[in-house]
């Protein structure tokens, strides 16, 4: 340490040796890591899908063998979560494919010399809904889906109406 005069008060924090502080990088927000492209990400980590599938099968086997109620409940929750994640991933993939097809159509129209036309969010939603109805019709589940929707809307309407107690 440096020799200090007794007449001057010693500073509270004195720099003996300068320490270089480590700078931590978060790859999610850093430009050095490159731009996130979901298509490339999905191709790179496609091997994870097979691993997840194996894990799901293993959990199903464990669920059949399990006798403990608490353990069985935990396994069931894990299985449900895995299936929900799988469904969400499929839904996201469908949306990506739909957007890509729309972009391709726009490019083709632009090549033909027409002005590009971009859909609004509401129009995209309508197209998505029409596609969903077509899928339900093909699978034969349209009636049950519509019945459930009617019941749900009826319950919502009942809630909105003033009750007899208020009158």
From TrEMBL:
Does the entry feature the keyword Iron, yes or no?
Answer: no
Q: Point out the coiled-coil segments of this chain.
A: 52-139
Pfam families xrefs: RRP36
Q: What are the UniProt keywords, alphabetically?
A: Coiled coil, Nucleus, Ribonucleoprotein, Ribosome biogenesis, rRNA processing
Supply one GO CC term from the record: 90S preribosome
Question: What InterPro entries does the entry give?
Answer: RRP36
Instruction: Tell me the segments the record calls region Disordered.
Output: 141-167
Give the GO terms filed under biological process for this record. maturation of SSU-rRNA from tricistronic rRNA transcript (SSU-rRNA, 5.8S rRNA, LSU-rRNA)
Compartment(s)? Nucleus, Nucleolus
Show the ranges annotated as biased composition (Basic residues): 147-167
- Protein family: Belongs to the RRP36 family.
Record note on quaternary structure: Associates with 90S and pre-40S pre-ribosomal particles.
Q: What does this protein do?
A: Component of the 90S pre-ribosome involved in the maturation of rRNAs. Required for early cleavages of the pre-RNAs in the 40S ribosomal subunit maturation pathway.
Q: What is this protein called?
A: rRNA biogenesis protein RRP36
Q: Origin organism of this chain?
A: Burhinus bistriatus
């Amino acid at each position: 340490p440096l020799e200090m005069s007794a007449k001057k008060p010693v500073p509270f924090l004195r720099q003996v040796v300068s320490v270089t502080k480590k700078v931590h990088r978060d790859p999610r927000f850093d430009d050095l890591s490159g731009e996130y492209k979901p298509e490339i990400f999905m191709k790179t980590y496609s091997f994870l899908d097979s691993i997840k599938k194996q894990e799901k099968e293993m959990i199903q086997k464990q669920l059949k063998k399990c006798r403990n109620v608490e353990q069985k409940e935990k396994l069931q929750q894990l299985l449900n979560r895995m299936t929900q994640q799988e469904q969400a991933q499929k839904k996201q993939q469908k949306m990506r494919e739909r957007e890509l097809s729309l972009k391709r159509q726009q490019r083709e129209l632009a090549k033909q010399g027409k002005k590009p036309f971009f859909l609004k969010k509401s129009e995209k939603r309508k197209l998505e809904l029409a596609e969903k109805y077509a899928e339900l019709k093909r699978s034969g589940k349209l009636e049950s889906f519509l019945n459930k929707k009617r019941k749900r809307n009826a319950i919502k309407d009942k809630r909105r109406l003033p009750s007899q107690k208020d009158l």
